[in-house]
Automatic annotation (TrEMBL):
The gene is lepA. The lineage of its organism: Bacteria, Pseudomonadati, Pseudomonadota, Alphaproteobacteria, Rhodobacterales. Its EC number is 3.6.5.n1. Keywords: Cell membrane, GTP-binding, Hydrolase, Membrane, Nucleotide-binding, Protein biosynthesis. It catalyses: GTP + H2O = GDP + phosphate + H(+). It comes from Roseinatronobacter thiooxidans. This is Elongation factor 4. Belongs to the GTP-binding elongation factor family. LepA subfamily. GO terms for cellular component: plasma membrane. It is found in: Cell membrane.
Amino acid sequence: TELANIRNFSIVAHIDHGKSTLADRLIQSTGTVSDRDMKEQMLDAMDIERERGITIKANTVRIDYVANDGQAYVLNLIDTPGHVDFAYEVSRSMRAVEGSLLVVDASQGVEAQTLANVYTALDADHEIVPVLNKIDLPAAEPEQVRQQIEDVIGLDASEAVMISAKSGLGIPDVLEAIVKRLPPPKGERNAPLKAMLVDSWYDAYLGVVVLIRVMDGVIRKGDNIKMMQTGAKYGVDKLSVLKPAMVDVAELGPGEIGVFTASIKQVRDTKVGDTITHEKKGCETALPGFKPSVPVVFCGLFPVDSAEFEDLRNAIEKLALNDASFSYEMESSAALGFGFRCGFLGLLHLEVVRDRLEREYGIDLITTAPSVVYHIHMRNGEVQELHNPADLPDLTHVDHVQEPRIKATILVPDDYLGDVLKLCQDRRGIQQELTYAGSRAMVVYDLPLNEVVFDFYDRLKSITKGYASFDYEITGYRQDNLVKMQVLVNDEPVDALSMMVHRDRAEGRGRAMCEKLKELIPRHMFKIPIQAAIGGKVIARETLAALRKDVTAKCYGGDVTRKKKLLEKQKAGKKKMRQFGKVEIPQQAFISALKMD
Ligand code: GTP
């Protein structure tokens, strides 16, 4: 296809503003998929998802469209991952296209996530067409939302397209706007091959499928190619475009988007943002901005029932097949037995994975305190990465500790602003910006990621009754007064509850933790001290009173068997507990103790 007749675009939208509905409409109204096939295809996709227990990611589609000017165009829609943790993947998808449709629900207005994605699109030099959706709703306020787009984002919205993706109203205008207002791609057909790896996923029949955007040159079936960042070499077995079913093609030229397979074993072998070229006579320089994805939040996942360890291993391996950004290694804990230490791109990623393990694979999990990655600067100049607070080296060798900081953007109705500012302040935040658009405020805070990983999002939602939207990006590492707090139950350290905290907040956290645990641990026949400590120093303490007269108290020394028998009696019927020394802690305590109020 001639470059002038190609348009590549993505759709930027907040969750529920109608991205999928609009995409479906564009596909349907151009006859890319017939109405009957549309339904069947959707069902198919869902069945396959259910059957394989994996998400079929790419909602990339190539649409053939004859415009009002009588010319035939190829429109490529690339779907971008929906959530904030995948900011890098979103940025790569955006680099693969020249423009975006900015879809805003006319009854809701601009949200934080929309903002972040619009800025990514602008960074990628996109032409942006604002689209106001859901104008069929009585609550729609298109004029106000149009003004909001201009005020908050600074885009000219005077020619925003008004649509109802649901009823189909305005869909032809969207297609014309794509052709008329978005620029065609640029590229050189006679130059060496240069293509961007945009995404990849695992298909049970085809193996790893790689989505690419060709920048320069031509890729053909049978070509020998190499990935410039990883150095891996492959032969192209199959080359297709997605309509959205795979349709084989002989070649893909500049500006085109398609997929290939090449006997690649795992999704892990493909790196989003890598440059693909020919093994011989390849291009000299790779595309800029490549960044290997690194996990930033770690936590331990253990089965509640240790007999489910193998099930957990299988489930994790399956999930990892299609999620290269999720890392895991086996871990054993004195308290929790065998499990996995897992790394995630962010908090939401962690929640999604944990949720899927529990829901789709039916495994009850204990999640240990999520920890960010700390940089431990040793006295000898070495820098270590700390993924698990339990592994903190001897402090006499540590010079200082650095923690990751984020830039958080929060959009919130005026009424709740005070509470939001207080929350951010309480979490060691530094306010950077505060602006208004209509009755909504936008605040930008510099916050330690550590303070956000626990329950920031939950708290934000609850104090704003769900009206706030939140987005963040990691900005860098900074030194602070950070210490490891341990929790001791009956004088035994419980590693799963160890955490790094800011020194000034340690007492508060420690006290809250001890109080919570006191409520959550059932009484035993003996008194149980519950303590929080830094190094050897106890900073908070609670005592759980004995259940009743301490029957073992009289069994000084000698009569160990009698003591044991008595304790055993108490134990009967309490299966869902973990034994810590002499104390049993219910599973629920681990999760609840980590949630701070
Ligand atoms: P995610 O898939 O969760 O990211 O959401 P999305 O942005 O893709 O939104 P989706 O297309 O799933 O639409 C969200 C809801 O809004 C659905 O219940 C749609 O039926 C509804 N919806 C989408 N477009 C319109 C519209 O034009 N009018 C009305 N009334 N409802 C719409």
